[in-house]
Records
---
Amino acid sequence: MTSFFLKGEWYDFRDLGNPVGGLLHDIDKIAPHWVVYVVASLIGTGGIVLWGVLSCLAFIWIERRVVALMQNRKGPNRVGPAGLLQPVADALKLLMKEAITPRAADKIVFWAGPVLIFVPALAVFAVIPFGPKMTLADLNVGVLFLIAIAGINTPAVFLAGWSSNNKYALLGAMRTIAMLISYEIIQVLALLGPVLLVGSMRLGDLVGWQDHYNTWIFFIQPVGLMAYIFAGAVETNRSPTDIAEAESEIVAGYHTEYGGIKFGFFYQAEYLAGFAIAAAITTLYMGGYTLWGAEKYIPSWIIFLGKLYTVFFIYIWARGTLPRLRIDQLMAFAWKFLLPIMLVNTLVVGGEVLIWRENDISDVTALTLIGLVNFFFGAALVIGWARFLGHGRGRQVGRRALLTQEVGAVYFGAETSS
Amino acid sequence: MDSTGVIIAFYVLAAMTIGSAVSVVVVRNMIHAVMGLIGTFAGLAGLYVTLSADFIAITQILIYIGAISILFLFAIVLTPQASRNNQESFLRFPALVLALLVAGVLIFVALDNTWNLSHAPDFPETASTIGELLLKTYVLPFEIASVLLLVAVVGSIVLVRPEPVEED
Amino acid sequence: MTIKSEPFVVNVGPQHPSTHGVFRLRLTLDGEKIVDADMVMGYLHRSMEKLAEERTYTQNIPFTDRTDYLSAMTGNLAYVMAVEKLMNVEVPERALWLRTIMAELQRIASHAMAVGIFANDCGAWQTPVMHMFRDREKILDLFEMACGARLTLNYMRIGGVSKDIPVEWMPQAQRLLKELPDRFAEYEDLLLSNEIIIARSRGIGTLTPEQATAYSVSGPMLRASGVAWDVRKADPYGAYDKVDFDIAVGRNGDVYDRFVVRLAEMRQSLRILQQAFERMPAGPVHARLGTATVQPWGQAVAPLAYRPPVGEAYARIESPRGELGYYIVSDGGPAPFRFHIRSPSFINLTPLKLMSVGMTVADAIVILGSVDIVVGEVDR
Amino acid sequence: MATRTKFLSGLDIAHRIEQRFPGAVDEALPEFAMIKPERLIETLTYLRDDEELGFKFLSSLTAVDRLEWFEVAYHLESFRLNQATAVKVRTFDRENPKVPSAVTVWQGAHLQEREAYDLMGIYFEGHPDLRRLFLWEGFAGFPLRKDYLNLPGGLNAGLERFPGEQGLDFSGRGTQ
């Protein structure tokens, strides 16, 4: 007790689990057993909430600046240095706005919507390992937890859309549910690949496996990663699948009627859901908090957050680049394209793991072979299936207009080489 | 029922489950009733966690909150006649009587039984245990259930398919 | 067995991000499918046709800016052409060339806006619009140099243009002309082969040439349906008979083709500009009519009121949105007796129901975007 | 290369119509041919379908209040032959002007006839959906008519002089 504040682990920021562990250890000596539990969960939840809010604020600014750069604009640059305080100003504005509830809305459900949508967005982070000891609850069904908690979104979105008593909101809610339910299946199948490889659904085990073999599942499961990134875009309503809140069609979708801080909840929940998807991709596909030995020198949580933000950046990039698909095209993409491919992919991974386990093959050879096979087979599968569905090369080529001098002639249906 | 925390959690969750379940029956607005149902499902999932059946708990959330409740919501919204409110029904009193009878039987059984505590060891990895059981011991029922679901999927697709336009 | 759902009426607008102004589209939906589409307009109706009957012919020119405010030059041009036809005025050669140049610059600016906003309607979050604005801004700078205004230009005059271009105008325009082909290549690269844009716009809102003609559709919409009709070519005005250019024609008449035709027309406009810059003669820019005086610096001071002879005139030009016609009836007084605008945005909306029924909500927005309406011109 | 749209004079058109439908033409001027309302639809159909005319495109349809009568002007174009013309129809009934609808001939007349009905109050018989277009249902009167209202400042429609012109009396700021 003499050196309460001067113990080594207090400065060991490679893993924030160390100082917290030290603190808990000291508390355990002086307080009853359950206090440790309460303190540990309070620190964990508080940390995650704090991190989530700060990251959201930072990314509001980053997203606006980055997209502005993509669009030949400057972006927010007035509030604070380089516009850095813009998100704070936004948040203050949202907080101070009058919380309007439409008269025709169903009051209770209208209020429940933003709260319900916020819970799963935050709860997902409970199972994410930010570092070796930085997991709030390392469930043994962590992967399933990711999907199940994200699934709570569905009723929340529906209730928000329905209770607004607005046609755009209802249309948006219907679209969201159709999308979420379809892409939940894709998500499950995409996450099944890593789970089959590792043989565990505990996220800590998944990271440990990638650390042990010094590889990322990204290299072994490219098709699964692509499908999961796309399904993640659907899940978080980001471009090119922001159909549920398609601004140019249904104004703001299910949260059309929400304003003030209630809208702020949706806004932040959307960011948090985006971070959750990025965290899942980082953990499952990109080695989590490990970086081929560099985690000895760099704090692991910095590695993790770096990867997470990189993945999240892809979504921002897509938002500044891509147009939006139509709902039926998106559904067709899920059911006709991704589902068969993911089923085949799962089968292939299962077979590969079986062969690897049953036979005496060295790990390096096995993983290299699996990676190569999956890459080429996946590429062949995607291209072949796209061809089979009629998305040949010829259809993608843009047409050019026909140029003519002849006034009054009709060229309808004239097919010339473009 | 080992520690105080679990006991507290059990009572909180049980109260939540029963309260939501009562609200499902009592509330007039059908969407509110579905919200109550979601609360019941969530409470049940929590109860499963206290029984260290985490796989079942997660599945409960995934299937019941994520899918079944949506089914209810869609059914309510897409039914044109059923507006938002529950209707009065002549079956109200028979239903009440039936419910009271069932409740009586359940309470009687609960009080009359001598409850034995199980001393079987916990499953450390519920998911893999369930997986092995499903794919080894109970593979036939599992497959039969799968085939049944497949039939249901195909049937529903056939039902909602637009009729092909007949060309003469 | 089919499952029927209740019809669901959605009001798209008048306050909506995609109606390009205060325009209302009342869609009756079955699920996401449109079973009926009805247009409600008039939120921007300023009764220009009535107001114009109370103002002199010269005073009416600013009104024509404010109909199609994204393409004010062509509005000016069509109106002054109608009045010139009525008064039988011979316009000086340089003024004709200047009118052509300005109209073509305006066409590029307007088409850039149309294409960008169309991509926005497809859901590309602002990026194409902002890229297009880059070029449009430079064209607006040129307009500002020439006439002091950027949007409502009021440049054309009866018998010519308000003033000659300043000396530094031509070098700047030449510089812009050198930049633009690369930019257009970039847009064609980014947008024409974009898989999602193709998926969203091919086969949507198709009009056959017969339908397009019967529904009085004009401009890029008509040409996208495969009808090679361009007033610039068919009935050349300005200096269009002296320049060489092609009519861009689509093959399928869908939303994608309208978009392709617009991009191709921007290139043709560049061609016209190139030739015009080389061949524009020197000379006066305003005809001497009545008491009109031309100041030493080239500005024409119009007489207070023209009194055209009794009669009527209908002049039409190819505005970026289609065939823009002005029908003017004169009773010999200082103000038009009847002033009617045949506005392409308005008439191109006629087949909207035909195009959107059977499509989804998302398609309806894209179709409306492809019509490229300017509500100021729809409602007038 | 400088092709120009051939404008078929009203006299020419009137001659052709007269040959096909004797008595259908009311008046003919070089600028237009005036057709009798009762023969309008068959005449317009003839103009559209005839091989040598082929006016498949209705460029503009508008109504004019000539104080004694209302007239509806149709500006027609043919893409194939690159020619244009104008025909008109008139009605002397100021209380209840009625003209047959051209929607059956050109669907493009749909919105334009609605506009003419809205602003000029001409009832197009046979129009499938004749409602107010820009103004709301229940709007009193038809604003483009010359007798709708005198404008502020007391300047009557069709006035001979304008402010600033010589000879205008500014003492009373208008006549009312």
---
Amino acid sequence: MGFPLLSLVTFLPLVGVLIILFLRREQEAAIRWVAFLTSALTFLVSLLLVVNFDRTEAGFQFVERAAWIPAWGIDYFVGLDGISLWLVLLTTLISAIAILSSFTAITERVKAYYLLMLLLQVAMVGVFVALDLFLFYVFWEFTLVPMFLLIGIWGGPRRVYAAVKFFLYTLVGSILMLLAILYLGLQTGSFALPDLMAQSGRWVGTAAELWLFLAFAVAFAIKVPLWPFHSWLPDAHVEAPTAGSVILAGILLKMGTYGFLRFNLPLFPQASRTMAPIVAGLAVVGILYGAVVSFAQDDVKKLVAFSSVSHLGFVMLGLFALNGIGIQGAVLQMVNHGLSTGALFLIVGILYERRHTRDMDRFGGLWALMPLYGTLTLIVVLSSLGLPGLNGFIGEFTILQGAFASEVLGWGYTALAAFGVVLAAIYLLTMFQRVFLGQSRDPANAELAHQPLRWHELAVLVPILVLIFWIGLHPNTFFGPMQRSVEAVVGFLGGSALAGW
Amino acid sequence: MMVPIPYYIILSAILFTLGAVGFLVRRNAILIFMSVELMLNAANLAFIAFARYFNRLEGQVLVFFVLTVAAAEVAIGLALIVVIFRTKHSIDVDQVSTLSG
Amino acid sequence: MDAVLDYAFLAILFPIIGLLLNAFLGDRWRERGVAWVACLASGAALVVSLLVFAALLGRPPEARLVERTLYPWISAGALQVPFALRLDPLSVTMMLVVTGVGTIIHIYAVGYMHGDPRFQRFFVYMNLFLASMLVLVMGNNYLVLFIGWELVGLCSYLLIGFWFEDLSKAAAARKAFVVNRIGDFGFLLGLFLLFVTFGTLEFGPIFEMAEQSATVVLAGLTLPMRDVVTIITLLLFVGAVGKSAQIPLYVWLPDAMAGPTPVSALIHAATMVTAGVYMVTRSAVLYEMAPLSSGLVAWVGALTALLAATIAVGQFDIKRVLAYSTISQLGFMMAAVGLGGYTAGMFHLVTHAFFKALLFLAAGSVIHGLQHGMHASAASQGAEAFPASASPLPPPDPHDPQDMRNMGGLRERQPLTFWTYTIGALALAGLPPLAGFFSKDEILADALERNPAIWLVLTVAAFFTAFYMGRQLWLIFFGRPRTEAAAHAEESGPVMTIPLILLALGSVVAGLINFPGPHPFADFIRHHAAPFNPTVALTSTVLALIALGLAYRIYRDRLRATTDPDPLLQTARGLFVGAYNAWYVDRSYHRVFVQGFYALAAFLARPVEAGVIDGTVNGVARLVRRTAGQLRRLQTGYVRQYALAVMVGVVAIVAWFLLSA
Amino acid sequence: MDLPTVLFFLHALIAVGSAVAMLTSRNAVHAALWLVVNFVTIALFFLTLAAPFIAMVQITVYAGAIMVLFLFVIMLLGAERLGGEERFAFQRPLALLLAGALLVEIVYLLLSPSARALAAMPALTQEGTPQAVGQLLFSRYLFPFELTSVLLLVAMIGVLVLTKD
């Protein structure tokens, strides 16, 4: 075991926590900067992971393992493969962006806010690097608390309702997962993922496999959220502060899809094959349903929230295509959604901070008032609706191609899901039109012309835009390292999936 | 000739039950506390009896710890009673039901 | 010379550099700097295209296919898509059309857009369009083609909604994008099926495999290649229907005229909308294997040609007439390629690019002139009061510079525009020796040879074409000015008229590239060309002359005031009103699809989402709360009662021990 | 019946009697004094069970320190007697019933065949002298022993915090 780089990336934000604890509550600027610099530093350190990543290796790298609760075979066991690599990077990036985006938006209880943000970051990275199921569960649940508080304290008018709903809904699923984790641990005597994968013969093919699959699936499906378990999401998004929404959409939802990919597929391959048509069916319903409902919203944030339901449907469809193309597309789409939807929430936040409303009927003509802002929004909107040349297209195309080529799904899934691309154009362009085009419908908008984007608002959007173009034009930077790991997962699923169809 | 262990245990049980009864029927917070002490003592008696029977000193060590805990508990408990008395001007436990659901 | 081929990607790169320069630095320059950058970028792309053309000509005919991989674009599992270019006669033809017409229109737009506050943005979009269109035509696989395909759609969206302060223009832009997306939906499915069938998306290997293997194994079934290809080509055609505005997805194109006129000329007449024709030609191998698909292509094209031509007769908006005319001409091209007349289709694509761009630009010049006239006349007199008219159609808006009823007599005010417009119109009507004559004639000759029914439909459509062009000429340029604005209209400046002259020149001589007999163009793109058919040529020329004469008889001096009803309204009232309303197709679509979608969205968002899905969740929560409300009564707060409960538990547990022991 | 048994019953009678007296005293001070008696008798039992150290601790800590604390608080609050009526009529009979049931259960358990083995008392080998207990406390149970110091500290601070005005 060499230098514990992965643990460093995971726990580095705690340094910031420690420093902030020693600052006085009134030193708000110092607190902000410490929080931002810590998370920015974490992001830079996490870049070392990419640099040192061995893309020819299918298994886990940067592995660290130490006994934690030896009596029950629980270890502190972390590692990274080509799939979690990008999610860890996404987390460190989005966390830094979310912290920077709160500089002017959060003015109350500043100290507590940034402490929670940094703690949340630790937990989220932990989720993506944990290889011990128990450790995973601890990190998984630990993300709930800071998020609960972020929504509940700094949220909108119905924040308490939204926070409690978010907390309880996700907790219900997690409990089933805990039971399944304990069952697995007791069966095999180990909670380590590689051990469990090696011993999966114990339950594969039995009725237990199906139940275990379902127990994990419910937890993850609520987190994703897979239709029809999504109704906590719009409430949480609408009430959460901007940075909370960014993190929620950008990272927390990915924990669900990541869970499916990391645990459900390799541990329960046969159940995955059996259940694939059902899960993919729900995903397709989610794609269409999310898109149509999104169209009917007046609140921009709610619109974006429902669009997440639709986009995550694509990710789920790709995963349950159960072949290399679909899964690679799904992993990339997780990153894409984190960037695009995160950016959309940032954009809505910028507007909300100035106008204190998100009702689309009260905007209009904003492109003329804020040309740069309008253009940036348009790029993000286009990325979100899957325009070729930008990131969304690569993900969606690969997913749909994977689903089309899938052994377990019929062509109908792809056909219906592809129609979601049409619907995405409808609701996103309608949103753009209602907010940015035409004439202003509220005289209060005139002030916006005098409030151009501030430096930190640009600073949060620019890196995202760079990545939007990068992924769109050269996706192989991202496909390359995940290739082998995805092949390994596909290998567990059996069949000729390696070939692609 | 020694007194057999069951005698001690039965005595311990009787004392324990008496303590429980005291806890349940008295309203005076201090008396309730005393009943708790009685129950602890009953338990201690059982510990010592078994320690003698098994010839193990661990039982006695445990009683030692129980005594320490009891001391701490009494200190805190009585302080609580004092605080309650200050606000409610009574130590009748039936006067205190703010935790009612 | 071959070295040029390695640098063909520069054709795409130059406009990209141009747009980046203008986007990031353009606000520091004045209009002049922006214009120079944009036009030079476009001109550089033209030069590259010409050099590539020359390089290809320098090679023997069978070696005129060069592929250059720029970099591997997508490698996900088995899906391997390179970003690669394919240079062959077909793509070079398109490159020349795109960059040639594109450069001329860029120059024209410098004058047309002069003074617009978003001048810089306009040229950024235009350069982006050029780059995207070049990606579309130069890609060596369907996915790269699709990038261009969607990006030109984006440019179309941005440019239709260029004056987005007008919500109707923004809505037209969205409509265009969404309708195109519906087509792209089919196209995407076609791509998926192509990939699972052939394992690649590159043109070369696909065409080779399609021709060589008779069967294909899909999802465990062995299917005849012919059937699979039929499905593929049908799906791809859905995309072409959207992009090239064919029945039933043509409805976006007339609305797309909301964009600035140079955009209508470049995107919505000369280049982007022909992408569907290009795609079908590119996939000729596949379409030839699937008679069902190509038959459908031909019929959809022919019917679109006829339908749009009839609608064009009933329009008053100068650009709408041209828009429906474009749809109609695209129908001609589609019919041609559907019938296997790829040469004729592509030939018509080229000539049409010239004369339709010319018509649009000249129309822009007319509009420009009329706007000047309006400014001039507004100073001398107030708003004109119009008497109510008895017409079933709404009277013209006196401030609409595009309504032909507000024009008349412009021949004298704008002579250069008049002459170039006339050349374009006659080329479109198909009079010899103009370019349109040769290309249209070749289509008709092909049609008569292969499918006389389609020939008949197309001939009728050609008749209507000549008629509505005649109508337009008379309404705009002849008679007396019907408004003050028309009387004060001014000729446009040289930056606009020189492009008109260039395009007019092209409209005259472009027919030469596939002059009957040697058919040089057919040789170049290596597709068959129908021999010259004197009967067809004579018939269509005579019909066109009759139609023009008829228009002259009907419209000569009949409209004297803006409120005078159209003469056709008296002779064929029902038909004219129907044509004016585009046979109510758009309206029905709105009723059924748009409002249906609104209703569905409202239904899902309110009763279903709030009631059923969230209702279930909140229902469970309410149930828990109610149960808890009952259970909380157990928590009396009396510590002794809690103790009693504990005691019950103790007794019970001990009893359980006793009984189980 | 031999002497130790007789003495045991005598002692037991005092223990139970003092407990009952404590329960039934109306005056809290009396109850506390009865409890002291009870504690002392239990300390005597400890002596007979070879636990002299614990017996001494019992007397000093319980009968001494803790009970003094009780008496002190009773005096401080002046709450020897409680007025008012029992509000829950079911509390007392139910309590007696449950206590009786528990007692019956325990006795039954001790009379069960498996408990017979307890009857024979093995010979004494380990006496709970201060030295023996101390050695155990400072060796194997050192950590818990140290923890009790923390516990007592916490209790001390807790009391100060709670009763501070």
